[in-house]
Design a protein that fits this description.
This protein has 580 residues and is an alpha/beta fold. The protein has three domains: 177 residues, Thiamin diphosphate (ThDP)-binding fold, Pyr/PP domains (Rossmann fold, 3-Layer(aba) Sandwich), CATH 3.40.50; 156 residues, TPP-binding domain (Rossmann fold, 3-Layer(aba) Sandwich); 191 residues, Thiamin diphosphate (ThDP)-binding fold, Pyr/PP domains (Rossmann fold, 3-Layer(aba) Sandwich), CATH 3.40.50.970. The protein contains 22 helices and 19 strands. The chain has a six-stranded parallel sheet, with helices on both faces. Helix 4 links the parallel strand 4 and strand 5. The longest helix has 22 residues. The radius of gyration is 26 Å and the shape is globular. It starts with 17 loop residues before the first strand and ends in a 25-residue tail after the last strand. The structure holds adenosine-5'-diphosphate and magnesium ion. The site of adenosine-5'-diphosphate (ADP) has 24 residues, from helix 11.
Length: 580
């Protein structure tokens, strides 16, 4: 309500000038620098999308909310600003929720904005259209959840959502906007004054100097030090400081999947090809934006050598991450840019590089493993095996280091991670902490939109199926995305048979000899069937040169591929399973 008469703008017709919920949401987003919304239109947010587009926001419409959500989340990772996903109520909201939970798990900042049904009816469970208590459902799956009931609170609601998403450890935030809110009318001046511009949404968090000294002391005591770079380090955009730390210290580094390219995988200190050795034998390990979760065997067990044989230094913005799996000898809590810079300053003059013996051991192992792999990557056979096909893609990325690589699947993921070298930060986007399938097209679309760079999406045939319909979205927005489907006729491989015979296929196989390339042709894109690594390489290069939406069906030997890729050990085994 206006407080005084002067607050009211009088239009030429003598009426006060008004605004409404729709416009206030859009104004609040624009005021805070939101330039893109990833959405699926429908009740009650169809007009919100239309009006946002009219107001100059880029509104990208998807075919399924999960893809829109994944797009928003990776936009958040790439830009350090919350990616915005907009959905309809109940079912659309639920479809977006997987992406929201995945964003939170991966520490990607995103805001899921969903329209919702009428509170009064929902709370009395009187059977409203798409009735659901969305706020309650979202809460355990995200960092924070808010609902705005009054148009005058939209500014604060959006501001709180932005701060929650990007400050401290980034994550997913849910913002519930009931249908009624959009049509609420407010005096325009009052509305404008209610908006909040978020100042310094992710404040620097400086580490304490005692903690920096402790970390340096532990590093100095090392005979066989190792630095592990995680996707938090990639997110932080502190690339120069991280490079300075690695190069000044002379310590070998191991990039986690999405940290590949922070320094090139071909950097002389990169221990990626000597992973097993360095994890087992290092005596001091410094984690930079990487968690000791399952992807690092929780910091213990066989992978890590003798129990308690090493000390950990950990840089993380989240204090509660410390000691989550093993004791952290030197916790360094703060933002990565500030922590790493403090360490670089502390290295100063008194630092001596790690013992030459350790460096030689790591280098020898790396060279041995690289030499072992090399011939497999050169195989130009038809049908292709994974290594032959990936060898071709490896050569493409080497020639086009600024292209973005999106990667999902089982074998397609695990092998591509090892085979395809990355040369620049934040160029490798993949399934992340959960190993979730279905991120492919959403990530590819957002990567193209946010960066303007060409995108190569390397997809297992099963993984691609989760978001395959979004090739229409890629064609509609004419995005420079080249999708390569590694088609081996099934999940893990394509040769399983139904154990009891009959007409049903085995549970893990797809239609044999499928032509995924035909899919994109339906929407005017370029489809290619590639049967050899040479054909594959030629087709990807052509796609990248033209910038045309392209889908390449890469014919992979159905017999190649192992169960669950490299994580088959996570499959429980039945004690009753008959010996084959
Ligand atoms: P990876 O899977 O690559 O090992 P994780 O997602 O497990 O990486 O770990 C990322 C870590 O980085 C999280 O613990 C998160 O709190 C932390 N992090 C994210 N952004 C920052 C930042 N700007 N500064 C410090 N730590 C960060
Ligand atoms: Mg497959």
């Amino acid at each position: 309500m206006p407080e005084t008469a002067q607050d009211i703008d009088i239009t030429t017709a003598g009426q006060p000038e008004l605004t409404d919920g729709f416009h206030l949401v859009i104004d609040a987003l624009k005021l805070n620098g939101v330039t893109t919304i990833y959405n699926v239109p429908g009740i009650p947010i169809t007009d919100l999308g239309r009006m946002a587009q009219a107001a100059g926001i880029r509104v990208v419409s998807f075919r399924h909310e999960q893809s829109a959500g994944y797009a928003a989340s990776i936009a958040g990772f790439l830009t350090k600003k919350p990616g915005i996903c907009l959905t309809v109520s109940a079912p659309g909201f639920l479809n977006g929720l997987t992406a929201l939970a995945n964003a939170t798990t991966n520490c990607f900042p995103m805001i899921l904005i969903s329209g919702s049904s009428e509170r009064e009816i929902v709370d009395l469970q009187q059977g409203d259209y798409e009735e659901m208590d969305q706020l309650a459902i979202a809460k355990p799956l995200c960092k924070a959840a808010f609902r705005v009931l009054h148009a005058a609170d939209i500014g604060v609601g959006v501001a709180r959502a932005i701060r929650a998403a990007v400050s401290g450890r980034p994550g997913g935030v849910y913002l519930d906007l009931p249908a009624k809110l959009f049509a609420q009318v407010v005096d325009a001046k009052v509305g404008a004054r209610s908006l909040v511009k978020v100042i310094d949404p992710a404040p620097a968090q400086l580490p304490a100097s005692a903690a920096v000294k402790r970390a340096l002391d532990v590093l100095k005591s090392a005979k066989r030090p190792l630095i592990i770079l995680g996707k938090g380090a990639a997110y932080a955009q502190a690339d120069d400081a991280i490079r300075a730390l690695i190069e000044k210290s002379g310590i070998p580094f191991l990039p986690m999947s999405m940290a590949k390219g922070l320094l090139p995988d071909t950097h002389p200190q990169c221990a990626g090809a000597a992973r097993s050795l360095v994890l087992k034998d290092a005596d001091v390990v410094m984690l930079v934006g990487a968690r000791l979760n399952w992807l690092l065997s929780h910091g213990k067990g066989k992978t890590w050598g003798e129990p308690r044989s090493k000390k950990f230094v950990q840089i993380d913005i989240e204090p509660r991450e410390m000691d989550s799996n093993v004791e952290i000898a030197a916790p360094l809590v703060g933002d990565i840019g500030s922590c790493v810079s403090a360490l670089v300053d502390g290295l100063g003059g008194g630092w001596s590089p790690p013992p030459a013996e350790w460096i030689q051991t790591v280098n020898a192992k790396r060279e041995e493993n690289i030499a072992k792999m090399a011939p497999r990557l050169m195989k130009n056979s038809a049908p292709m095996d994974f290594h032959g096909a990936l060898g071709a893609l490896r050569a493409v990325i080497k020639e086009r280091p600024d292209a973005i690589l999106v990667n999902e699947g089982a074998n397609t993921l695990d092998l591509a991670r090892g085979v395809i070298d990355m040369y620049q930060p934040r160029k490798r986007l993949d399934v992340g902490t959960w190993g979730v399938m279905g991120i492919g097209m959403g990530f590819a679309i957002a990567a193209a939109i946010e960066t303007g760079k060409p995108v190569l999406a390397v997809e297992g045939d099963s993984a691609f199926g989760f978001s395959g319909m979004e090739v229409e979205t890629i064609c509609r927005y004419r995005l420079p995305v080249c999708v390569v489907v590694f088609n081996n006729d099934g999940i893990y491989r394509g040769v399983d048979v139904n154990p009891v015979g009959g007409s049903d296929p085995a549970t893990t196989v797809f239609v044999k000899g499928s032509r995924y390339d035909k899919l994109i042709e339906a929407f005017g894109g370029v489809g290619v069937n590639a049967t050899t690594p040479d054909e594959l390489k030629g087709a990807v290069n052509a796609a990248m040169d033209s910038g045309k939406p392209t889908l390449i069906n890469a014919v992979i030997d159905p017999a190649s591929g192992s169960e669950s890729g490299r994580i088959g050990n996570l499959n429980p085994q039945s004690a009753l399973k008959k010996k084959a």
